[in-house]
Protein backbone atom coordinates (compact mmCIF):
# COMPACT_ATOMS: atom_id res chain seq x y z
CA UNK A 1 0.00 0.00 0.00
CA UNK A 2 2.84 2.37 0.83
CA UNK A 3 4.03 2.09 -2.79
CA UNK A 4 0.77 3.72 -3.95
CA UNK A 5 1.47 6.77 -1.78
CA UNK A 6 5.07 7.01 -2.95
CA UNK A 7 4.04 6.74 -6.61
CA UNK A 8 1.57 9.59 -6.13
CA UNK A 9 4.27 11.72 -4.51
CA UNK A 10 2.65 11.53 -1.08
CA UNK A 11 5.74 11.01 1.02
CA UNK A 12 4.34 12.47 4.26
CA UNK A 13 3.49 8.91 5.33
CA UNK A 14 5.42 5.92 6.63
CA UNK A 15 4.85 2.20 6.84
CA UNK A 16 4.38 2.52 10.61
CA UNK A 17 1.66 5.17 10.23
CA UNK A 18 -0.22 3.05 7.69
CA UNK A 19 0.04 -0.02 9.91
CA UNK A 20 -1.34 1.98 12.85
CA UNK A 21 -4.27 3.12 10.70
CA UNK A 22 -4.93 -0.45 9.59
CA UNK A 23 -4.90 -1.66 13.23
CA UNK A 24 -7.53 0.92 14.13
CA UNK A 25 -9.68 -0.01 11.13
CA UNK A 26 -9.63 -3.75 11.86
CA UNK A 27 -12.26 -5.29 9.60
CA UNK A 28 -12.74 -1.91 7.97
CA UNK A 29 -9.78 -2.47 5.63
CA UNK A 30 -11.18 -2.66 2.10
CA UNK A 31 -9.37 -3.29 -1.19
CA UNK A 32 -10.45 -3.13 -4.82
CA UNK A 33 -8.97 -5.69 -7.22
CA UNK A 34 -8.83 -5.97 -10.99
CA UNK A 35 -7.71 -9.31 -12.46
CA UNK A 36 -6.47 -10.29 -9.01
CA UNK A 37 -4.31 -7.17 -8.59
CA UNK A 38 -5.00 -4.53 -5.91
CA UNK A 39 -5.91 -1.26 -7.64
CA UNK A 40 -7.33 0.65 -4.67
CA UNK A 41 -8.00 0.60 -0.97
CA UNK A 42 -9.72 2.45 1.83
CA UNK A 43 -10.04 2.08 5.59
CA UNK A 44 -13.06 2.80 7.74
CA UNK A 45 -12.68 3.14 11.49
CA UNK A 46 -15.89 2.82 13.52
CA UNK A 47 -14.77 5.25 16.18
CA UNK A 48 -17.87 5.10 18.38
CA UNK A 49 -21.52 4.07 18.28
CA UNK A 50 -22.29 7.27 16.37
CA UNK A 51 -19.16 8.17 14.38
CA UNK A 52 -16.89 6.58 11.76
CA UNK A 53 -13.81 7.94 10.02
CA UNK A 54 -12.88 7.25 6.41
CA UNK A 55 -9.14 7.09 5.73
CA UNK A 56 -6.85 6.87 2.72
CA UNK A 57 -9.31 6.25 -0.12
CA UNK A 58 -7.05 5.79 -3.14
CA UNK A 59 -7.34 4.28 -6.62
CA UNK A 60 -4.38 3.80 -8.94
CA UNK A 61 -4.40 6.48 -11.68
CA UNK A 62 -4.82 4.00 -14.54
CA UNK A 63 -7.96 2.58 -12.90
CA UNK A 64 -9.71 5.81 -11.95
CA UNK A 65 -13.15 6.76 -13.29
CA UNK A 66 -14.07 3.07 -13.59
CA UNK A 67 -16.25 2.81 -10.50
CA UNK A 68 -13.72 1.37 -8.04
CA UNK A 69 -13.85 4.39 -5.73
CA UNK A 70 -17.65 4.40 -5.70
CA UNK A 71 -17.78 0.66 -5.02
CA UNK A 72 -15.48 1.02 -2.01
CA UNK A 73 -17.52 3.95 -0.71
CA UNK A 74 -20.72 1.89 -0.90
CA UNK A 75 -19.07 -0.93 1.05
CA UNK A 76 -17.78 1.54 3.63
CA UNK A 77 -21.33 2.87 4.07
CA UNK A 78 -22.50 -0.66 4.83
CA UNK A 79 -19.79 -1.17 7.45
CA UNK A 80 -20.55 2.18 9.08
CA UNK A 81 -24.22 1.25 9.43
CA UNK A 82 -26.04 4.30 10.83
CA UNK A 83 -22.90 6.11 11.98
CA UNK A 84 -21.90 9.53 10.66
CA UNK A 85 -18.85 9.18 8.38
CA UNK A 86 -16.33 12.02 8.49
CA UNK A 87 -13.04 12.69 6.70
CA UNK A 88 -10.97 15.28 4.87
CA UNK A 89 -11.15 15.15 1.09
CA UNK A 90 -8.63 16.68 -1.27
CA UNK A 91 -10.29 19.33 -3.42
CA UNK A 92 -10.27 17.36 -6.71
CA UNK A 93 -12.16 14.50 -5.03
CA UNK A 94 -14.95 16.66 -3.55
CA UNK A 95 -17.39 16.22 -6.50
CA UNK A 96 -17.23 12.44 -6.13
CA UNK A 97 -18.18 12.60 -2.47
CA UNK A 98 -20.94 15.10 -3.14
CA UNK A 99 -22.43 12.66 -5.65
CA UNK A 100 -22.54 10.11 -2.83
CA UNK A 101 -24.39 12.51 -0.55
CA UNK A 102 -21.52 13.87 1.52
CA UNK A 103 -21.61 17.53 2.51
CA UNK A 104 -18.73 19.94 2.91
CA UNK A 105 -17.95 21.40 6.32
CA UNK A 106 -16.73 24.90 6.94
CA UNK A 107 -13.06 24.11 7.54
CA UNK A 108 -10.39 24.00 4.87
CA UNK A 109 -7.02 22.29 5.35
CA UNK A 110 -3.70 22.14 3.56
CA UNK A 111 -0.63 19.98 3.97
CA UNK A 112 2.60 21.97 3.99
CA UNK A 113 6.21 20.84 3.83
CA UNK A 114 8.75 23.37 5.02
CA UNK A 115 12.32 23.79 6.15
CA UNK A 116 11.43 25.52 9.40
CA UNK A 117 14.03 28.27 9.61
CA UNK A 118 11.88 30.71 11.55
CA UNK A 119 9.63 29.91 14.53
CA UNK A 120 8.17 33.17 15.93
CA UNK A 121 8.60 32.50 19.65
CA UNK A 122 7.66 35.25 22.12
CA UNK A 123 10.46 36.62 24.31
CA UNK A 124 10.24 35.05 27.75
CA UNK A 125 8.02 32.17 26.62
CA UNK A 126 10.70 29.68 27.59
CA UNK A 127 10.45 30.65 31.25
CA UNK A 128 6.66 30.91 31.23
CA UNK A 129 6.00 27.33 30.12
CA UNK A 130 7.26 23.88 31.04
CA UNK A 131 7.55 21.14 28.43
CA UNK A 132 7.50 17.48 29.43
CA UNK A 133 7.51 14.11 27.69
CA UNK A 134 4.01 12.64 27.57
CA UNK A 135 5.08 9.75 29.82
CA UNK A 136 5.77 12.29 32.57
CA UNK A 137 2.25 13.73 32.70
CA UNK A 138 -1.03 12.21 33.84
CA UNK A 139 -2.45 10.25 30.91
CA UNK A 140 -6.08 10.94 31.84
CA UNK A 141 -5.40 14.67 31.91
CA UNK A 142 -3.88 14.46 28.43
CA UNK A 143 -6.90 12.53 27.13
CA UNK A 144 -9.24 15.11 28.68
CA UNK A 145 -7.28 17.91 27.05
CA UNK A 146 -7.56 16.23 23.64
CA UNK A 147 -11.29 15.68 24.20
CA UNK A 148 -11.74 19.43 24.71
CA UNK A 149 -10.93 19.77 21.00
CA UNK A 150 -13.01 16.88 19.69
CA UNK A 151 -15.93 16.49 22.12
CA UNK A 152 -15.63 12.68 21.88
CA UNK A 153 -12.81 10.92 23.71
CA UNK A 154 -10.11 9.55 21.37
CA UNK A 155 -8.09 7.64 23.95
CA UNK A 156 -7.62 4.53 21.79
CA UNK A 157 -6.56 6.66 18.81
CA UNK A 158 -4.06 8.59 20.94
CA UNK A 159 -2.53 5.42 22.37
CA UNK A 160 -2.17 3.94 18.89
CA UNK A 161 -0.59 6.98 17.25
CA UNK A 162 1.62 8.00 20.18
CA UNK A 163 3.11 4.50 20.20
CA UNK A 164 4.11 4.56 16.51
CA UNK A 165 7.79 3.73 16.14
CA UNK A 166 9.97 6.84 16.32
CA UNK A 167 7.20 9.08 17.70
CA UNK A 168 7.99 11.75 20.28
CA UNK A 169 5.04 13.31 22.12
CA UNK A 170 5.53 16.40 24.25
CA UNK A 171 3.16 18.28 26.55
CA UNK A 172 3.37 21.98 27.37
CA UNK A 173 2.18 23.19 30.77
CA UNK A 174 1.60 26.57 32.38
CA UNK A 175 1.69 26.56 36.18
CA UNK A 176 1.18 22.80 36.13
CA UNK A 177 -1.85 22.87 33.81
CA UNK A 178 -1.76 21.29 30.33
CA UNK A 179 -2.10 24.01 27.69
CA UNK A 180 -1.06 21.98 24.67
CA UNK A 181 0.55 18.85 23.28
CA UNK A 182 2.06 17.60 20.05
CA UNK A 183 3.77 14.66 18.38
CA UNK A 184 6.54 14.43 15.80
CA UNK A 185 7.54 11.28 13.92
CA UNK A 186 9.69 10.37 10.91
CA UNK A 187 8.07 9.92 7.49
CA UNK A 188 9.40 9.36 3.98
CA UNK A 189 9.60 13.10 3.31
CA UNK A 190 11.29 14.04 6.59
CA UNK A 191 9.24 14.54 9.74
CA UNK A 192 5.50 14.87 10.36
CA UNK A 193 4.05 16.89 13.23
CA UNK A 194 0.59 15.49 13.97
CA UNK A 195 -1.10 16.75 16.03
CA UNK A 196 -0.15 20.04 17.64
CA UNK A 197 -2.80 21.68 19.80
CA UNK A 198 -2.32 24.56 22.23
CA UNK A 199 -4.47 27.10 24.04
CA UNK A 200 -2.81 30.09 22.38
CA UNK A 201 -0.35 31.04 19.67
CA UNK A 202 2.47 31.67 22.12
CA UNK A 203 2.22 28.16 23.56
CA UNK A 204 1.89 26.73 20.01
CA UNK A 205 5.17 28.27 18.94
CA UNK A 206 7.05 27.28 22.08
CA UNK A 207 5.89 23.69 21.75
CA UNK A 208 6.64 23.69 18.03
CA UNK A 209 10.20 24.80 18.69
CA UNK A 210 10.67 21.92 21.11
CA UNK A 211 9.22 19.36 18.69
CA UNK A 212 11.25 20.57 15.71
CA UNK A 213 14.36 20.19 17.87
CA UNK A 214 13.82 16.41 17.70
CA UNK A 215 14.48 16.39 13.93
CA UNK A 216 17.93 16.81 12.38
CA UNK A 217 18.76 20.35 11.31
CA UNK A 218 17.21 21.45 8.00
CA UNK A 219 14.95 18.38 7.79
CA UNK A 220 11.65 19.02 5.97
CA UNK A 221 8.73 19.14 8.41
CA UNK A 222 5.14 18.44 7.33
CA UNK A 223 2.02 19.82 9.03
CA UNK A 224 -1.66 19.66 8.02
CA UNK A 225 -2.90 23.10 9.06
CA UNK A 226 -6.56 24.26 9.29
CA UNK A 227 -7.25 27.46 7.37
CA UNK A 228 -8.58 29.11 10.55
CA UNK A 229 -5.41 28.45 12.57
CA UNK A 230 -3.99 31.73 13.84
CA UNK A 231 -0.67 30.11 14.72
CA UNK A 232 -0.62 28.48 11.30
CA UNK A 233 -0.96 31.79 9.49
CA UNK A 234 1.90 33.29 11.50
CA UNK A 235 4.14 30.27 10.93
CA UNK A 236 3.49 30.15 7.17
CA UNK A 237 4.16 33.87 6.81
CA UNK A 238 7.44 33.54 8.72
CA UNK A 239 8.60 30.71 6.43
CA UNK A 240 6.92 31.75 3.19
CA UNK A 241 10.09 31.28 1.13
CA UNK A 242 10.58 27.72 2.35
CA UNK A 243 7.04 26.30 2.13
CA UNK A 244 5.66 23.78 -0.35
CA UNK A 245 1.94 22.91 -0.52
CA UNK A 246 1.42 19.14 -0.80
CA UNK A 247 -2.37 19.19 -1.05
CA UNK A 248 -5.47 21.18 -0.11
CA UNK A 249 -8.73 19.79 1.20
CA UNK A 250 -11.96 20.29 3.11
CA UNK A 251 -13.73 18.37 5.86
CA UNK A 252 -16.75 16.37 4.70
CA UNK A 253 -19.32 14.15 6.36
CA UNK A 254 -22.35 12.02 5.58
CA UNK A 255 -24.52 14.10 7.92
CA UNK A 256 -24.39 17.52 9.49
CA UNK A 257 -21.97 17.42 12.41
CA UNK A 258 -21.45 19.73 15.40
CA UNK A 259 -18.84 22.46 15.10
CA UNK A 260 -15.37 21.42 16.25
CA UNK A 261 -14.44 23.68 19.17
CA UNK A 262 -11.09 25.47 19.38
CA UNK A 263 -10.11 24.76 15.77
CA UNK A 264 -8.41 28.16 15.57
CA UNK A 265 -5.97 26.86 18.24
CA UNK A 266 -4.96 23.82 16.17
CA UNK A 267 -1.60 24.15 14.41
CA UNK A 268 -1.59 20.60 13.03
CA UNK A 269 -4.26 17.87 13.00
CA UNK A 270 -3.66 14.27 14.00
CA UNK A 271 -4.93 12.31 11.02
CA UNK A 272 -5.64 13.99 7.70
CA UNK A 273 -7.61 10.94 6.50
CA UNK A 274 -6.33 11.65 3.01
CA UNK A 275 -8.72 10.76 0.21
CA UNK A 276 -7.64 11.06 -3.39
CA UNK A 277 -8.84 9.33 -6.52
UniProtKB/TrEMBL annotation:
Q: Name one GO molecular function term.
A: acyltransferase activity, transferring groups other than amino-acyl groups
- Every copy of the N-acetyltransferase domain together lies at 1-136
Looking up InterPro entries in the UniProt record yields: Acyl/Acetyltrans_Enzymes, Acyl_CoA_acyltransferase, GNAT_dom, YitH/HolE_GNAT
What organism does the UniProt record list as the source? Lingula anatina (Brachiopod)
Protein known as:
Uncharacterized protein LOC106153851
- Encoding gene, per UniProt annotation: LOC106153851
Q: Where are the transmembrane segments?
A: none
Q: Which PANTHER family match?
A: SLL0310 PROTEIN
Q: Which CDD domains match?
A: NAT_SF (cd04301)
Amino acid sequence: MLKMFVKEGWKDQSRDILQATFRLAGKGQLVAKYDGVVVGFVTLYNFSETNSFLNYLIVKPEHRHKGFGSAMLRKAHQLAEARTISFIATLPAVPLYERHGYVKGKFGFASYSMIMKHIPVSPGAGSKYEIKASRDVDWNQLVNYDTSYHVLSREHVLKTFCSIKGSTTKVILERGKIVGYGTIRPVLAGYLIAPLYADNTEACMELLRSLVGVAPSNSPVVLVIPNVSQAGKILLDANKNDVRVLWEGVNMSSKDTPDIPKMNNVLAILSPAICFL
